[in-house]
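ingest -> validate -> predict -> emit
validate: passed (alphabet ok, no gaps, 583 aa)
predict: started
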Amino acid sequence: MNEQNQSTEQTLLDLDLSAFLQAHQLPDAFVTTAKHWFSELAQSIAEQQQQTKKPLVVGINGTQGSGKSTLADLLVYVLQNAFGLSAVALSLDDFYLTKAARNQLAQEVHPLLATRGVPGTHEIQLAIDSIKALKNKQLPVAVPRFNKAVDDRAEKAEIIDQVIDVIIFEGWCVGAEAQSEESLTSPANTLEAQDDSTGTWREYVNAALAGDYQILFGLMDLMVMLKAPSFDCVYAWRLEQEEKLRAKTGGGKQVMSPEEVARFIQFYQRITEHTLQTLPARADYVYTLDAQRQITALSRKPITLGDKATQWLIFTDMDGTLLDHHTYSFAPAEPMLKAMADQAIPVMPITSKTQAELETLRKALNNQHPFIIENGAAVLIPQGYFAEQPADTSTEGDYWVKSFVAPRAHWQSLIDKVSSHYQGQFTTFAQAGIEGIIEMTGLDKQAATEASQRQYGEPVQWRGGDEAKQQMLAELTRLGANILEGGRFIHVSGNSDKGVALQWLRDVFATQLPAQTIKTLALGDSQNDVAMLEAADCAVIVKSPVKAPPQVNRAQNLLLTTETGPAGGAEGVQKFTQIAPNN
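emit:
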């Protein structure tokens, strides 16, 4: 599984998007944006589909001109070419009522309903039936397509006659909720004030949104939002859409002028502004856009943990614990990991590894929980994991970060101060470089590059005698360094350890989940795991095939496993949680 996922991610990163760029009139810079921001989303969609073995429906919400159609097409392209999945992009726009049907609504209910766009102007039952048929593999399915240049449904429907793995469904109001009746009283703009003075049109639209549209949106398995900074951006974005349509079709009376665009977007203003306020808390992925439509941030839906009186938190070392000492495989632990996921119990890596290394491993594990790097030097929490950002954290990239020690450069300077007495007896990662790290660890070039990206400390490989080693470590300690000896390397960093980081993160969970009793379980196999094994409520010492177990200062709630590596980790988790692996 590990090798398969790493290979898939490499395929995604190497995917040639030139044909896609040309078809969508996109600049070359879009490649960098797409791979940086949407790789995780594409992989998450693919993994969810592959786990469930059922068609997955992904909803995309975005204001007019936000890029939702482009994202839908990109995901289809990536899912097909990088993951080998069959995928199709559908749009809420394709299910507009015919022009004749809208004209009839305009006569019977309100003249504004002749204009396409708002809830009530779609054949929503057809959309529901089409998606359900695709999900249930009831083929063929005839999906309508809408021709905006003539403002009417295309004469020919698209026939889908193959099983679809992923359905991407995009629309400007996908995921929107109806407003209260009181909110409809005051007009939102000039259009509503002048053309809907009685409120008949907006009440009809709101009632439609509260009805079958919610059934349609309930079919979404995953919700993605491209969040505009405000409704003010929509005019410029929509104007650009019309220019593209004019270039593609050669113009026509249904391609709108700037004045017509200004009026047209007012139809969408009320629901768009309400959705910008309410959908981010419910969407699984929220991409925040600036006025130039550049993505500035990604937040994810707060994790849904268990609702039981006791919430288990599992903290696990990696090498020799969750990963086999010799093969680096976690296959024996997979049934346990699945059982923990089913029970909403976070399994959180806590390791000497770097952020770069952990990000690769977390993708292979499909793990979206917080993680602790470099022997407790920092805790990284995915943005949006909790409903509120924990106090005393900074925002760095996609994470809320709690740092406990000074940066790497400080600890390198201390090593330099004492190194003259121990020439030739040790090598740091910085001295070794990528090729040296490969020789030290046996890692491939990519893994060695990730291992080299230390942020908070410096690994040292000692080659001299024990007496000299102890002397050098004593000098570093007097200079303020904290020393941890792992299975293969000495780690020189600050006064933090896995136990301090575990306790801090445990307290964060307690703050975020005040109604639950938090219980912690730590799994490790080495001396540098002792602090967390002593800090946790329960501890599992995983039997090592190459060394004696670490000595810990506790006797209660302690287990030494009979199995080694990931099988031993699974043994310990089952012992304390009383949850059987999910085979």
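The radius of gyration is 28 Å.
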